[in-house]
Amino acid sequence: MKPIMRATTTALFIVIAGGLLVPSSGLAQPPVFITRESGPYFRVDAGAAIPQDGRLDQFGSFSAGNEVRYEVGFSSSFAGGFAFNRYLAAELEMGANCNKIDSVTGFAVTDTFLYHFPILANVVLQCPIPHTGLVPYVGGGVGGSSTLFDTERFSNGVFTLVGSDSDFVFAWHAFAGLRIQINEQMFVGLDYKYFAADSSSYRYPSLDYRGPDLSLSFQGMRSHLASVSFTFRF
Residue 207 — φ and ψ, nearest 5°? Predict the structure, then answer.
């Protein structure tokens, strides 16, 4: 009986040890989707905002259609995101685009600016080139933009507007670029964005506070943004 008991005990010990080792080896396997490249990061960029010509859709109670020409302006943004792996990331971006209005057909314009402050949720697809520090990427985002129209003088010869007003509109953008890896945590890059925002409207009270308010509306903004960026990965 003793040899049988000894064999049974040995077999039981092997089964228990095997049961303990199998889960341990399974836990040792790293997740397939979340890799060592995963983690949070932030990005800042700054550059030029090159807008397309637009249109004044409304001035007062009448449709307008006057051509609006913008000067090249300034763009900047800040984004915080999370990289799921080396190929896919999601981020929340906030920015500011500033353009001075150069001229509006039929209007006298003095120190007049149109600002956009977008808040956008982005998806980023990137493809690191093996054995280099180059990381090409593309992406896009949707959200909204707080707009601000500010003028020292905006006049058609009959009505003159002074001051500022704001609006909030739907906005989206698409982007592409190239990042260059400095080390495990830092990247610099060259970025291009195509930014689009819906038409914005503004209202000004009558100067003598007895007549009706005066409204104006600008065609949606379309702008090309070229910038340099810095990314830090935690």
Answer: -65, -35
Closest listed residue to residue 226, CA positions, set 177, 187, 186, 173:
177
- Is the residue at 134 inside a domain? yes
Q: CA-CA distance, 79 to 61, in Å (whole number)?
A: 40
Residue 145 domain-assigned?
yes
Q: Does residue 17 lie in a domain region?
A: no
Count of alpha carbons within 13 Å of 118, Cβ hemisphere only?
28
Beta strands, E only, the chain: 39-51, 54-59, 62-70, 73-83, 88-104, 108-126, 134-155, 160-181, 186-197, 200-204, 214-218, 222-233
Amino acid letter at 211? Answer: G
Q: What is the spatial distance between Cα 119 and Cα 95, in angstroms, rounded to a whole number? A: 7
Residue 125's identity, in one-letter code, is: L
Query: Do residues 117 and 92 touch, judged by C-beta distance below 8 A?
Result: no
Could you tell me the maximum CA-CA distance found in the chain, to the nearest angstrom? Answer: 116
Q: Tell me the whole-structure pTM to 2 decimals.
A: 0.81
* Residues in CB range of 220: below 8 A, 6 or more apart: 54, 169, 196, 197, 198, 199, 200
Instruction: Summarize the confidence of residues 80-84 as an average pLDDT.
Output: 97
> What is the rounded average pLDDT of the residues 156-163?
90
How far apart, in whole angstroms, are the C-alpha atoms of residue 74 and residue 89?
26
* Number of domains the chain is built from: 1
